[in-house]
Amino acid sequence: MANHKLKHAAVAALLISGVALAGIYTHKPYATDVSKNNNPAFPSEAMAVKNPPADSLQPITNTAARKVQVVFALDATGSMSGLIGTAKEKIWSIASSFTQADTNTIVEMGLVFYRDLGDQFVTKQIKLSADLDDVYEKLMSINADGGGDSPESVNQGLYEAVTKMDWQNDTTTYKTIFLVGDCPPHMDYANDIKYPKSCELARQKDIVLNTILMGNNAEARLIWKEIANCSQGEFMQVDMSANNLVVSTPYDDSIAKLSLNMDMTRMYYGSVENVQKSISKKTQSMNFMSASDVSTAARRAEYNITTTSGNTSYYGTQELINDYKTGKVDVTKIETAKLPAEVAKLSVEQRKVYLDKMVARRDSIDKEMKKLVEKRKTYIESELKKKNKSEVDNSIDNQIYENVKKQAAKKSLILKGKAKY
Q: Which of 42, 47, 144, 175 lies at a C-alpha separation of 20 to 30 Å from 199?
């Protein structure tokens, strides 16, 4: 009931309608010509990979901020409704887990969804981005559908995850792909790029391939292990619910309401397109609140407000209140045409008074949210202690985090703490 009240109050306050999703890249198969082979081969010798060229990856000397790039290649066929639902719930908590490092850590996430030939789509991409609000909005348009036969277009999904994302070309960024699904790849599609080649390319790009098998398909299990082994990744196995462990708290509703209030304070200046971003961001927030429960909203708030990566992408560039507060911009010197409507209509003197009030309002919301987030963390820790240890250890959140933690350490990126929920 609290969630419905929150949604209705937000709609009444803003009267903003939804916007069309954009930026999801849909891919057709590489070839429609399919040659059948009753005895497809899985050439293990093709997994032997050459070391990347010495000059292909560049070191980074500035260690003030480090980057984590994570792409999930997800089976989006009909049997994967539990997986897609988990992805929508967990994107924020998983990203929050990745920010627990000594240095400022910027997290970028991307997604590749794959189905099979004859389905509505073969693959769809959501590009790597630090703006998880944008990633989430596109994720909300994806549902599990299609499939039918056991093999899926795993090869194409994995190949696009390796080659179609904007991976950093350096040796210090931790880069990983999580391949998640329940069926093996088609090995009988004539012009498909087979998974051994993608493994080789991943090695050359310094990308760790991790695999998560949902269910008990024996053929998929062998291939998932082979893919993980090719780049010192990890193989994991979960049930069809993705071992989803969700902990709701008494503070989620209040955090969600405060988060929406904070969202509504964002306003941008500069070009016409940037000024219009204020409306776009508020509309995006409305879409999020309409589609999500308060627990997901609380996870989003924790990530956006309390982490460097989330906070940076949450406000973005040329956000007026943030830049005014830090002294980055002098509001008396900005052309009226380059100001958001709320400020442009005011006199120069009134603008400063207005922005001072907005800074104070935002600081008050931020302070209250951080208090509630700490209470939420304490509550979750208490609830997890009451659960069976194996349930917590085998949860999707913990399995992903512990593997990333171990692999990132090889890049001298030390993650602390436990998985977020």
A: 144
